[in-house]
Protein: Protein-L-isoaspartate O-methyltransferase
Amino acid sequence: MNLEEARRRLVESLVAEGIIRSERVKNAALKVKREDFVPESERRYAYEDMPLSIGYGQTISAPHMVFLMDELLDLKEGMLVYEIGTGSGYHAATIAEIMGEGRVITTEIVKELAIFAWRNLSRAGYSDRVAVIACDGVKLRLREKPDRILVTAAAPDVPYPLLDLLKDGGKMVIPVGVFPQKLLVVEKRGGEIARRYVTDVAFVPLRGEWGFDKKRR
Ligand code: SAH
Structure:
């Protein structure tokens, strides 16, 4: 089975499982080539529904997790989306594809991965819509408030700077806690914060000042 065929089959099964619910997410899943975002040795596994190694102890999330989060983000054309944890750049590419018009700013704490992701995104044709910044994404000061925030590493709890950064009326999708981590949708409305638990998940831990590898304040 070639990769095109494998991609089509995986998308069909994710639709059947109820993970992919919208046409927009389905079309993006069919369009973005996951094999172009993994190391050469992992290409043939690109359409197995599991996380794959991208080096530096990090992984590209399983496709069902990427598209579950994309559906929860409720993306609309023209939005500004902020991602913490670029990894391979695949998730950011799917978001850009779903929005069509719109911008993604994605941050990666491992410099080598930021470069890897930037190469992948450029080759795949997303360099005009996705910006990659090598930094601790929780600490970055953005001038513009994002409509959506996606965190792809598990934080001890929802980091305060991200709640502050999120636009009013905006949504954040984030895994929190220790294994099994809880996937949450956090909404900000009129200054009020609502948290909704979705499901148990397994992500690599968030690093940096608001992560697990450093004591906070
Ligand atoms: N979304 C990615 C998967 C990311 S795995 C993809 O589509 O491939 C989580 C990533 O978060 C790892 O690459 C890790 O290095 C990064 N990360 C962890 N803590 C971070 C932080 N504080 N700021 C930015 N990136 C972080």
